């Protein structure tokens, strides 16, 4: 009877991860395809839950305050997405400020991450509304493929760690594989859309931005002494664990779009 050359422990979470991933992809796909208020509601929900997870990582002994902050996030996000005014952007400071005043430690941590989560969520909705389905499909495909390539390459090849003090499991092999996967996504979109050759390079940079979002959340969890942001998703932890890379990619594109016109990303 032959045995696998790979230790089973390396892949013991794969089935659960795949099932959870399939469910999330299905829900996310419906929201992205429908767009409009449906995608907005999905993003509002995910954003609110992530801020709750952020609070619980810092003050798990006060869950009620975390739920109230999450409800406030949902209210602020819903209003801002409907109005879309520059002045209204100041409303995104409400939850970070209120949450920070309730903390004695990690005040800056909560403020920065809560603000970043809301801005990233807002960016995703406006990317979908302003640039269309194909554009948001490209963004999400880069993040998803980066994660898939990175996971399998890291598990299969291992090797030197990318940043062991912050993210002990992330390897250089997985990181580079993620860039290669993102380049393939860019190449495919170049073939089937009006995007130019630049889309390949931009996809790789976007992949790195997503990986930095993952690293930032890993640093937060390490600082808080927790393994996962929550236990909501079997095999993945919390929504913050699952969407940290998407947040990083969204924030990166928000900054880039405000500074320069991104060449080639025209579908």
Describe this structure in words.
The chain has 267 residues and is an all-alpha fold. It has one domain (14-259). It has helices at 14-34, 36-58, 63-83, 94-101, 107-131, 133-157, 172-192, 198-224, 239-259, and strands spanning 161-163, 167-171. It has a two-stranded antiparallel sheet with strand order 1-2. A hairpin with a 3-residue loop joins β1 (161-163) and β2 (167-171). The protein is globular and about 50 Å long. The model is unreliable at 1-6 (pLDDT under 50).
List the helices and strands and how they pair.
Elements: H1 14-34, H2 36-58, H3 63-83, H4 94-101, H5 107-131, H6 133-157, E1 161-163, E2 167-171, H7 172-192, H8 198-224, H9 239-259
Antiparallel strand pairs: 1-2
